[in-house]
Amino acid sequence: MDRDLSNTLQADQKRVIKDKLVKYCITSGGALVLVTLLLIFAYLLYVVLPIFAPVSIAAQKEFSYQSNGNVLALGLDEQNDIAYQISDDGKLSFYSLRSKELGNLLLEESMLSEYSAFAKTSATSNAYIFANSQGQALIFKPEFETSYPDDIRLITPEIIYPFGAEKLQIDAQAHKITAVSFEFGEEGAAIAAVTDDKRGIYLALTATEDMMTEELVWQQEVVALPSLPNQIEQMLLSPDLKNLFVRSNNDLLVYDVSDIENIRVKSALAINALDANVTDMQLLTGASSLIVANDNGVISQWFEVLQDNKRTFTFIRDFKASAKVTSITPEYFRKGFLSTDQQGYLSVFHTTGATQLLNEKLSSSENMQVAISPRANALLLADDSRLRLFSIDNEHPEITWSALWQKVWYEGYPEPKYLWQSTSASDDFEAKMSLVPISFGTIKAAFYAMLFAVPIAISAAIYTAYFMSAGIRSYIKPTVEIMEALPTVILGFLAGLWLAPLIENQLPGIILLIISLPLSVLATALAWGALPKQIKESIPEGYHPLILIPILLLVGYASMSFSSTLELWLFNGDTRMYLTNELGINFDQRNSLVVGIAMGFAVIPTIFSIAEDAIFSVPKSLTMGSLALGATPWQTLAKVVILTASPGIFSAVMMGAGRAIGETMIVLMATGNTPIMDWNIFEGMRSLSANIAVEMPESEVGSSHYRVLFLAAFVLFIFTFFFNTVAEFVRQRLREKYSSL
User: Would you call 63 helix, strand, or coil by DSSP?
Assistant: First the structure.
């Protein structure tokens, strides 16, 4: 007896230890899942938050120099080691910004001591032109040569004369040049000038290679500029040598100079703000946009927009500085610019986000000059015979809340739009990183997948759990659940290479299937009801679905076989052309219909399995009690079984929706991955997950593109978290409501 009691106590002790061990393991596993989710959330935030960090500027170095006049232009090398300035006495001076030799004069040369006009090219060309009173011009470029003596980087300044150190004769009559503009193009260069007798001159320079010396020989062609105004304040040539902008007070003339034989004025417009005068204008990087500054602190952006089959320069947006704007400095490779005003404030703007990123007082001088580093990480400022170097932390100016979630008017587009186009082969490209189209694509793909999957999965779950015989259910349920193990990459492959062409070629048959299959089921049911009782009783209860299999196969084959005839009768022999031309519905081969079928096929097992378990788990006592009270099986199903199982059914639907939202490979392979916003079932989309899969391998680590992709992953995380939270909340409410049944 004592031994039996001892054995019992020992067994109870072991059971207690096992129970506690299992309890701690389950608790630890749940806690680890929560910790993992929190770590994922924290890491996504860690990568994403820098794109919303404010712009900051900090003083680094400064030195004084011997002033010989006012500063006309400033510049920096890429490493921020050497600065140069062009003063109004015609001198180009290079100064060291290295700590050990800060302020040392490295090179100085007089370009043109007596000049009548001065201009600079776009930032990427980085060239300057002086013109004099004899109708001549000198063009030069400050450059920096990098070498590595003794494995130490050495940057040496030099001056390049693209057309030789001799002056170019622009005006054959040798008149004084009062305004000038110069620009390099892909196949040559051009100079636009105005003389003191109000003549306009356009000089085209074309380079040819001498076959003997292999040197470039520049050929000149001079034509007159027509219809020039009497007073000209500023001239700008676009780097593509297609447009010439001439400002006269507050009016702008835009010349088409793409054809030198037919130079013409293509538009004239007033570009000043209300009750203000223009102080400066500059071309933004890429030369698609014109930035105009006014003396009331308003800065406006203009670019060409297609209106009435004609491209005209249109006011797009404006920005506000602190006071009268004295200068505009575009960035080298981004759609941002700097402005200075007469109160000594520096402002940093970015056009895509339409935002002012920084506004800070840096000087007490009204005539300060600034230059931005080619890498946009440093700023050079000249005032009161001082050069000052500032560091700028402005890594992601193009990413703002409005650029991500609101319509943006991008360069060249007729109106504001939601667009995703993150990369291009051009340095002048304006990144379009709106998350709205790809978020819409995620919802669209999930919607059509659920539209296909939910009716089939729920209906199948109800029939399998409630009506089907146990023998058939033992085969059907595992078979459907095994479908969930199919790799989605295989489904995407089949959808893209087999299903999409099939739907395109047999679209009338597919549409007919949607009608014929339900009608055939109803017709079969009516025919079954008309059969003699002896025949109906010969088939065991629960085996009736087997009768439908050959009928559905036959109807499906007949519908697809009739597709060509139906296409000829109803759609003039070409369904795709009929949809496009007659109904105005665009048709892509890889479209939402393909995604809905393929992804719905992948989601059906998930919804079916959970819903079937929920329905099958309804206590038999409830169904038996309902039937005993006189309810029919269908009434019992609708009033008892479905209501009792509703929490599980709803969870199944939400689990399926969560999987559809996060699905990657099917959407990636079965659509054209076009980030468009249209509910058209015959057009594709791009989802958040597919977008990450496509673009993450090509994104530069730490770039704006890279971090926005992580933001897309964060949005996807929020989507799934939201759906799961709503599902749990509704499930609990349904459980509380119907728990009394």
Answer: strand
Contacts of 211 (CB under 8 A, 6+ apart): none
Distance CA 712, CA 584 (A): 32
Element (H, E) at 442: helix 436-462
The three-state secondary structure class of 315 is strand
Report the CATH number of the 436-738 domain. 1.10.3720.10
pLDDT tens for 32-65 read 988 988 898 899 999 999 998 899 999 998 888 8
Q: What 3-state DSSP class applies to 534?
A: helix
**456 to 451, 508, 603: CA distances (angstroms):** 9, 22, 11
User: How many CA atoms are closer than 13 Å to the CA of 433, on its beta-carbon side?
Assistant: 29
Neighbouring residues of 62: CB distance < 8 A, sequence distance ≥ 6: 386, 387, 388, 389
In sequence order, the 6+-apart residues with CB closer than 8 A to the CB of 456 are: 600, 604
Q: Is the pLDDT of residue 4 over 80?
A: no
- Calpha distance 373→97 (Å, rounded): 13
**CA 504 distance to own-chain centroid:** 30
- pLDDT bracket for residue 8 (50, 70, 90): low
Share of residues in the chain with pLDDT > 70 (%): 96
| CB burial readout 42-66, b (16+ within 10 A) else e | eebeebbeebeeebebeeebebeee
Count Cβ atoms within 10 A of the Cβ of residue 270 and give its class: 0-12 exposed, 13-18 middle, 19 or more buried.
exposed
**To 10 degrees, what angle do helices 704-738 and 436-462 make?**
30
How distant, in Å, are the alpha carbons of 90, 139, 347 from that of 70? Answer: 10, 20, 22
Q: What is the rounded CA–CA span in Å between residue 462 and residue 241? A: 71
Helix, strand or coil, per DSSP, at residue 334: coil
**Is the alpha carbon torsion for 502, 503, 507, 509 positive or negative?**
positive
Q: Quickly count: other Cβ atoms within 10 Å of residue 262's Cβ.
A: 9
> Which tokens hold the place of 484?
């969930």
- Looking at residue 483, the DSSP 8-state letter turns out to be H
Tokens of 495: 């959808």
Q: Which helix (H) or strand (E) holds 551?
A: helix 545-561
Q: Which two tokens stand for residue 735?
A: 């459980």
> What number of helices (H) and strands (E) belong to the chain?
18, 31
Q: Quick one: three-class SS letters along 593-660? A: HHHHHHHHHHHHHHHHHHHHHHHHCCCHHHHHHHHHCCCCHHHHHHHHHHHHHHHHHHHHHHHHHHHH
HSE toward the beta carbon, residue 635, CA cutoff 13 A: 9
Residue 68 confidence (pLDDT) above 80: no
Helical (H) or strand (E) element with 42: helix 2-48
Can you tell me which residue has the tokens 């329905």? 615
- Cα 619 to Cα 307: distance, rounded to the nearest angstrom: 69
Buried/exposed 680-702: b ≥16 CB within 10 Å, e otherwise? bbbbbbbbbbbbbbebeeebeee
Instruction: Give the helix, strand, coil percentages of the chain, each rounded to 5.
Output: 40, 25, 30
Residue 465 is given by DSSP the state I
Q: Which of 734, 736, 724 is nearest to 649 (CA)?
A: 734
- Stated as kind and residue range, the H or E segment containing 218 is strand 216-225
CA-to-CA dists, residue 273 to 87, 173, 234, 314, 543, angstroms: 31, 39, 17, 13, 81
Q: Which residues does residue 265 pair with via DSSP β-bridges, in sequence order? A: 255
56's tokens: 């900051």
- Which region, left, alpha or beta, applies to residue 557 given φ > 0 means left and ψ of -120 to 50 means alpha? alpha
pLDDT tens column, 495-518: 888 988 888 888 888 888 888 888
Residue 668: partners with Cβ closer than 8 Å, 6 or more residues away: 492, 690, 693, 694
- Report how far residue 458's alpha carbon sits from residue 642's, in angstroms, rounded to the nearest whole number: 11
